[in-house]
Amino acid sequence: MAGTGEAEARLNTVVRIIANNMVAEVCSVYLLRGDGVLELFATEGLNPEAVHQTRLRVGEGLIGEIARSARYLNLSDAQAHPAFAYRPETGEEIYHSLLGVPVLRGGRVVAVLAVQNRTQRHYSEEEVEALQTVAMVLAELLVSSQLFRPEDFAQTSDTTAPVRLTGQIFADGLAIGIAVLHEPKIVVDRAIADDTTYEQKRLARSIAQLREAVDAMMSAAQSVFVGESRDILEAYQMFAYDRGWLVRLQEAVASGLTAEAAIKRVQDDTRIRMEAAVDPYIRERLADLDDLANRLYAHLIERDEAKPALPDNAVIVARHMGAAEILDYDRERLRAVVLEEGATTSHVAIIARALQIPLVGNVRDARKSVESGDRIIVDGEQGQIFVRPGEEVLHAFQANLAARAARLARFAALRDQPSETLDGVRIALNVNAGLLIDMDQLQSSGADGVGLYRTEIHFMVRPRMPKIDSQTGFYRAVLNRADGKPVVFRTLDVGGDKALPYLRIESGENPAMGWRAIRLGLDRPALLQSQLRALLRAAEDRDLRIMFPMIAEVSEFVAARAILERELERHRASGAPEPRSLHLGAMVEVPSLAWQLDELLEVVDFLSVGSNDLLQFLFAVDRGNPRVAGRYDRLSPPVIAFFRHLVCKADAAGVPISVCGEMAGSPLEAMALLGLGFRNLSMNAASIGPVKEMVRHVVLTELTSYMSGMNGAQERSIRDCLGDFARRHGVPV
After folding, report:
1. Quick one: which of 312, 406, 318, 357 has its CA closest to 174?
2. At 58, is the secondary structure helix, strand, or coil?
3. Which long-range contacts (CB under 8 A, 24 or more apart) does 469-477 make?
């Protein structure tokens, strides 16, 4: 492979050598083109006229199935496999057994390498491993020799035209900067070791250096990060000492690979295995392991692993990043991050929020659309990315930045002002939180308290179930940071799309309506008991507010309350200080509760409307499906009527009721909620300022009278009518 001559001629020689050494009658290489088609590029044994003529789509035939799954196939009777596709021009019908492996580069399939025999035979594990090793070296030949013709095997794009991309907001904020591609690569110049003992020593020395560097980085970060952020980095540090990872590296070197090739082999194998996992926590670990592999490679070749000097306004663009990788960049110069993958609860997102760096994730084709040095705009308020923006867009965004700064200054001036309408009605504005770092915004926003603390995030970022002492310390830290302001703790709302790495939960066809939240807590009472026990211990002469999620019928709330009462008796028996007061509430998210409100209001201390799930269930709409997510308006007459019913019932029973979903954070929709009778709203910290500004410009009696006149409306939505009301009365929405 390292020889001279035309690349395609060398590839033909390679397939002959492989066939001879593996005693195979056929050896073929199919290259994956940019249009997603696999083309037969070289063969020993099949009809040579089929070269460049036989083509399969990814997922079509056995070769296409290997490319789709990125896994090898070892078949003694290939033609009996359901994915087998017959191509008469190849003459392969006389061959029965097949061993095919994906050729991977950077975790992506670039080709498929296959051997075949006439007899029905099962290839040994040694043969599978040998072909996988050859495939790894072959990947370097295919790319470095430029065997791919650019016009056939590359996705071409105009690298000068402006591009607009969309994604999800992981950490909010706005930024204009210069794109920097985050592309650590492991380059294998020599795959086969001359001396495996020497390679083992190189590997051991590099691992020791890696661990020393990671330990130093963690020590430097201790003063910056607290809570989940620190836990995430400590978990990353543990991976550097993971014995399983070390053993796989040592075994790869022992098989005859160089240390560089071993790192690449283990990295590719791990990536394929973990990318196929459904569990989001396992997929999250992939970024950390990729990062560690790249750092180990840097030590191995004695390259400085520090990132190159950044422009003063750098925007990092990457496929994904580990939590520690963002720390490699100079925070004084780093303006924003753009990722092709990830989730709002991913570890890098949590670190970005802790550092107050805007981050937009799930930006499809970001790396294909962006070149290093491009001017780039990151809109972390709308989830938009503008690459190489025109002057008009650039000036408009700069104006938006200035307007945002002015708005923030205006909202900051309102921080210590009361949230009170013009006719003197006090409205409680609270924040939603889920991380310890979020508690810092309680004071900076001027919020009245925490209306919803999502306790599940504390569980989701950990590799194992936090013990009661750990939970107790965490909840105590939350209450300490609240500094006397009320905090409503929602018990675990896991299941559905929120998985715990140590708790196996089948997602089902409709995970949002499946085994999750209080259903899981009642079926696995030990999980709920440990959380309630920790909350009681943490309260210590303070007010404690606990809310149970996704209550669908009163009996579920009664059962959950019984578990709490048993824990309270146990707590009293221990002689530990009790909470000064204890209030139990339920989230109204399931419409069935509307027909049991009277009974529910007799047993709860407060209610909180989770508008996100409630409207999803009310309209039978999957809010993650773009075809239907915007079909129904949150200000439609059915929603208004439903909410009015909830408020009337709660007020008649003297039970406080609040809203803690997205509706509460939109000034126009929050205005509608005030007109319906809600006096307690909970939202993201960034929404406190805009909503407070709206509250301080409203005459509530006029608004209430106007909303009463909307009873029985037949329009699709009353949004435009409310907008007109706001304009006429000078209410900023």
Report:
1. 357
2. coil
3. 471/530, 471/531, 471/534, 471/535, 471/538, 472/534, 472/537, 472/538, 473/538, 474/227, 474/436, 474/534, 474/538, 475/534, 475/535, 475/538, 476/537, 476/538, 476/540, 477/227, 477/436
Q: Which residues contact 561 (CB under 8 A, 6 or more apart)?
A: 584, 603
660 among known catalytic residues? yes
From the candidates 320, 347, 458, 571, give the one annotated as an active-site residue: 347
Spatial CA neighbour of 115 closest among 168, 62, 182, 183: 62
Which of 88-92, 454-458, 552-556 shows the lowest mean pLDDT across its residues?
A: 454-458
Q: Where are the beta strands (DSSP E) in 434-571?
A: 450-454, 487-490, 543-548
List of residues 6+ apart from 493 with CB closer than 8 A: 454, 456, 516, 517, 549, 550
Q: Give the tokens for residue 695.
A: 């509250």
Please say whether the beta carbons of 614 and 661 come within 8 A: yes
**248-286: pLDDT as tens digits:** 899 889 888 889 888 888 888 777 766 665 555 566 666
Q: Sign of the C-alpha dihedral, residues 333, 286, 515, 555?
A: negative
CB 655 within 8 A of CB 679: no
d(CA 512, CA 457) in angstroms, rounded, equals: 17
Q: Where are the alpha helices (DSSP H) in 222-258?
A: 228-239, 243-254
Query: Are 571 and 537 in contact, with CB atoms under 8 Å apart?
Result: yes
Please state whether beta strands 450-454 and 168-171 pair in parallel, antiparallel, or not at all (unpaired).
Answer: unpaired
Query: From CA 239, how far away is CA 270, in angstroms rounded?
Result: 13
SS3 of residue 16 by DSSP: helix
- Is the distance from CB of 162 to CB of 393 less than 8 angstroms? yes
Stretch among 54-63, 227-236, 254-263 having the lowest mean pLDDT: 227-236
pLDDT at 659: 96
Around Cβ 159, how many Cβ atoms within 10 Å?
A: 13
For residue 368, the one-letter residue type is K
pLDDT at 156 > cutoff 50: no
Q: Which of 96, 320, 571, 660 is catalytic?
A: 660
Q: Which of 445, 514, 448, 442 is nearest to 478 (CA)?
A: 442
Q: What is the pLDDT of residues 637-692, one digit of tens each?
A: 999 999 999 999 999 999 999 999 789 989 999 999 999 999 999 988 888 999 99
What size, in residues, is the chain? 733
What mean pLDDT value characterizes the chain? 84
Is 27 marked active-site? Answer: no
Residue 428 DSSP class: E
Ramachandran angles phi, psi of 160, nearest 5°: -115, -20
**Given this model, what pLDDT does residue 497 score?**
55
Measured CA to CA, the distance from residue 341 to residue 358 in angstroms comes to 15
Terminal-to-terminal C-alpha distance of the chain: 66
Q: Cβ of 625: how many Cβ atoms within 10 Å?
A: 10
Contact 169, 305 (CB under 8 A): no
